[in-house]
TrEMBL record:
Any Pfam family matching the protein: DUF488
Species of the source: Diaminobutyricimonas aerilata
InterPro entries per the UniProt record, alphabetical: DUF488, UCP024492
PANTHER family, A to Z: BLR5642 PROTEIN
Protein name: Uncharacterized protein DUF488
Length: 214
């Protein structure tokens, strides 16, 4: 087994861990990972919902996932404490799956002011429109770049709380990945996944994705 290393995904450099196990930085990019067997660019997505730890881990294993990239705004759940900031990394580690928190640059808690000019008028849902506005920023681009660098070495599943991707901001991140030519697969069950498709009302220019009103 390759030696454990710790990656600071904000600066994209290797750092020695101060202690064993998962740690979190204020930038939201530090986690313990191990060297992989090769590059893979397909990025999976999954929502933990009300799954038990065993059900969640089994779904990841069945799809060959090696690293969970947490894109929740708050890495925890009162209703489902098994996905809390201590419990989840521990249960994943026991299954040989690594954990990285992307809590600042890819999380879904983004707010645009009501009435503020936007290029994403196709979204009627304010939360989704706000996230689409955030997708136009350098911070979002850095987060996607970090996610893809991780996916170059390991099979990654981007995780949030919602069971179905179309109710979650991870589907917008999926649009951004597809626009970059990266295959995205949404894990629905332990035995089934579906390819993510770019929304029909999305517009793409290079790596930029936006959703203009019709």
């Amino acid at each position: 087994m390759a030696p454990e290393r710790q990656v600071d995904f904000y600066r994209m450099r290797l750092v020695r861990p101060r202690r064993a196990g998962w740690t979190r930085t204020v930038r939201g990019y530090r986690g313990s990972v191990t060297d992989g067997d090769g590059a893979t660019r397909t990025v999976y997505t999954i929502g933990h919902s009300t799954r038990s730890p065993d059900e969640f881990v089994e779904a990841l294993r069945q799809h060959g996932v090696q690293v969970v990239a947490d894109v929740r705004a708050v890495p925890g759940s009162r209703r489902n404490p098994q996905f809390g900031p201590e419990e989840l990394p521990r249960s994943l580690a026991e299954a040989g799956i690594d954990y990285v928190a992307f809590t600042e640059q890819l999380d879904g808690r983004r707010y645009s002011r009501v009435g503020e000019p936007t290029v994403n008028g196709a979204w009627r849902n304010h939360s989704f429109r706000s996230y689409a506005d955030y997708m136009q920023t350098p911070g979002f681009a850095r987060g996607v770049d970090a996610l893809l660098e991780l996916a170059d070495a390991r099979r990654v599943a981007m995780m949030c709380a919602e069971a179905v991707p179309w109710r979650c901001h991870r589907s917008l991140i999926g649009d951004a990945l597809v626009a970059r030519g990266v295959p995205v697969a949404d894990i629905m069950t332990a035995t089934a996944s579906r390819p993510h498709e770019l929304r029909s009302f999305a517009r793409v220019d290079g790596h930029r994705v936006w959703y203009p009103p019709e």
